User: Fold this.
Amino acid sequence: MSIFLDENSRIIVQGLTGSEGMKHAGRMLASGSKIVGGVNPRKAGTTVEVGGETLPIFGSVADAMAETGANVSVIFVPPAFAKGAVLEAIDAAIELAIVITEGIPVHDSAQFWAHAKSKGNTTRIIGPNCPGVISPGKSNAGIIPSTITEAGPIGLVSKSGTLTYQMMFELRDLGFSTAIGIGGDPIIGTTHIDALAAFEADPETKAIVMIGEIGGDAEERAAEFIQANVTKPVVAYVAGFTAPEGKTMGHAGAIVSDGAGTAQGKKEALEAAGVKVGKTPSETASLMREVYNAL
Assistant:
């Protein structure tokens, strides 16, 4: 099995007619994803050729869903217009909206997060500023390379796109049920806890890798959740042990302030919850191999 994304997922791309949308849609198609169309109000009624397929362009998410049965949208819309695109996806009640766009103002993210909540969270948001979701061998929605691993029993949830790819490659001998890049912005739609709960409920996910980073308290809250609710083994990595205080490192949310949000503090919280924490991505992969082999 997998979580959030499977072989039955029918994907539309908001921003398909742009260069990034076209490029990554081609890669998604090549990895076996079912892309059924794109959305661009100014080009409604036209088609585009992507990866050897002719895809229709719709004027709205609602129109695309009505015509194609789409249940997933991948959003490549530029930052200035991304909020409107996400709000449109939420109003259309699409099941999953994966927001790839980087540089969306936090105020905009707060607005569409609150809007989704007001609609009963009918639409699950992943991101923004994330690489997306891949269930190897089934579907790939976003920018995660599909050739670096196979299907398998490991679940992966990560704040970092690059570390997602590295961990998938490091554990390619085991393979993954689903890998999710949740993004590193201060406000995101799907959290570590959301993914951990879904992996816990997935019978074919046998163990979980969680990748966090400095800043905020998401990892500490995840540790509490693991201790109370997760029976499967969890191995973690926290990026940012050498980060200086008060300086944003890579992601907008990766900042240590007044001693809070440090990598060491997160490591200690996770270890107190029974999570093995690696000092490097490679060590984390080795820990997962040991844990899995002991199952």
User: Anything to note?
Assistant: Residues 79-91 form the longest helix (13 residues). The mean pLDDT is 93. The chain has two domains: 10-126, 148-293. The chain has nine helices and 14 strands.
